[in-house]
Amino acid sequence: MKKLLPTSTAGSLPKPSWLAEPEKLWSPWKLQNTELADGKRDALRVALQEQSQSGIDIVSDGEQTRQHFVTTFIEHLDGVDFEKRETVKIRDRYDASVPTVVGPVSRPNSVFVEDAKFLRSQTDQPIKWALPGPMTMVDTLFDAHYKSRQKLAWEFAGILNQEAKELEAAGVDIIQFDEPAFNVFFDEVNEWGIACLERAIDGLNCETVVHICYGYGIKANTDWKKTLGSEWRQYQEVFPKLQQSNIDMISLECHNSHVPMELLELIRGKKVMVGAIDVATNIIETPEEVAATLRHALKYVDADKLYPCTNCGMAPLSREVARGKLNALKAGAEIVRRELAA
Ligand SMILES: [Zn+2]
What we know:
The protein is of the alpha/beta class and 342 residues long. The chain is 38% helix and 17% strand.
């Protein structure tokens, strides 16, 4: 992008109350069949309009067409039985009832491509589309077939690559892979997680991002954060290898987190989506707070590689709070843009 400090969000935005119960994560749909299909597209239009009106430069669907950032993708795959459920510990943090991998996984049809085409038809701005990362997908399932996290992740990476290539052909400018699991399973990330990610982006010409955060502002995550101490150094475990990888951009949680900003030095040369909006609080940042986070990051990220962003998705927030945060992000980026131009 030619514009300095182009703004975007990490992913989800609140859904309208007529589509799903608001301020609730993974809230079930309120509509069915064609009404649901129409409702999702209408919600996408609203999410797009709110981003445009707030001056967000790189826009997304606000994840209006999906219920969950991982399972909605997996629902479209063969080899996974959603009736057969087991309880597993997700990201070593909380128990969840998850579907079971019962046979070879494959993608009979594209998953998000029609939605992405629709988004493309609605805007001339650059668009970003989020997919789950292979390691995070594996961590959200019970595997009774491959019996190897690495093997299953490798298969998912191939499937994600098929989807990503179709998204690129549909006009998506930036494809993002959500990998919160990268913040937990450091040995596996270095042994095979990043290799799987590189398989997922193989042959793409559009830009690619990996989003690594400390999660939505839900209790399991905020409780976990309390155990991490005063300095969160998780990123340093995976940054050296990510710096060497083919991924173009890294999307990180920075504002209100205890991540020492100097860790960004370890990924010098990569584009960085700097989380300058805390999604775990209803308090709306001031533009000056956003600017302070961006200035701090500029010590370690070249200005032409810095992309102001949110820490994570904003689905669980009220629409009013999310809108306020989008406006703050834009205004804070504008302050720093003016300083850089001076
Ligand atoms: Zn996130």
